[in-house]
């Protein structure tokens, strides 16, 4: 009878030890999962920051290229405007010269015909 009681007590102790080991293993798995999630979150934040920096650099480069393109277009527009103005001035001078030559010729013709 003592043997049976001892055996029952040993079984209860063994069961308690097994339950404690199960609980420890479960706690370890939960802690490992929590740490894995923390590491993953940290990696995700780091990846997001790297992506944000890359996007910012890309936008900076793009903005700089856009600014350079706008500057170049403005230079071309001004150059075209300057050439157009020079052409119009030369055309006006040519007309004025032609007008003076015509009037001068007319004056000479009038002088000789009188």
Protein traits:
114 residues, single chain, mainly alpha
Topology record:
Elements: H1 2-113
Helicity level: over 70%
Number of DSSP strand runs: 0
Percentage of residues in DSSP E strands: under 5%
Largest sheet properties: none
- Mean pLDDT, all residues: 87
Secondary-structure element order, N to C: H
Segments where pLDDT lies below 50 for 5+ residues? none
Question: What class, by secondary structure content?
Answer: mainly alpha
Radius of gyration: 48 Å
**Gross geometry:** rod-shaped
- Figure out the total of helices: 1
Distance between the ends: 165 Å
Question: What does this 3D model show about the protein?
Answer:
This protein has 114 residues and is mainly alpha-helical. Helices cover 98% and strands 0% of the residues. It is rod-shaped. It starts with a helix and ends with a helix.
Question: What's this model, at a glance?
Answer:
The protein has 114 residues and is mainly α. Helices cover 98% and strands 0% of the residues. The mean pLDDT is 87.
């Amino acid at each position: 009878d003592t043997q049976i009681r001892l055996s029952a007590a040993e079984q209860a102790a063994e069961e308690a030890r097994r339950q404690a080991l199960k609980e420890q293993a479960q706690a370890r798995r939960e802690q490992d999962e929590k740490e894995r999630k923390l590491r993953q979150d940290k990696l995700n934040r780091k990846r997001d920051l790297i992506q944000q920096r890359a996007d910012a650099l890309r936008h900076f480069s793009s903005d700089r290229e856009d600014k350079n393109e706008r500057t170049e277009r403005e230079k071309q527009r001004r150059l075209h405007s300057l050439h157009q103005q020079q052409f119009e001035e030369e055309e006006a001078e040519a007309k004025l010269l032609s007008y003076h030559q015509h009037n001068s010729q007319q004056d000479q013709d009038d002088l000789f015909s009188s």
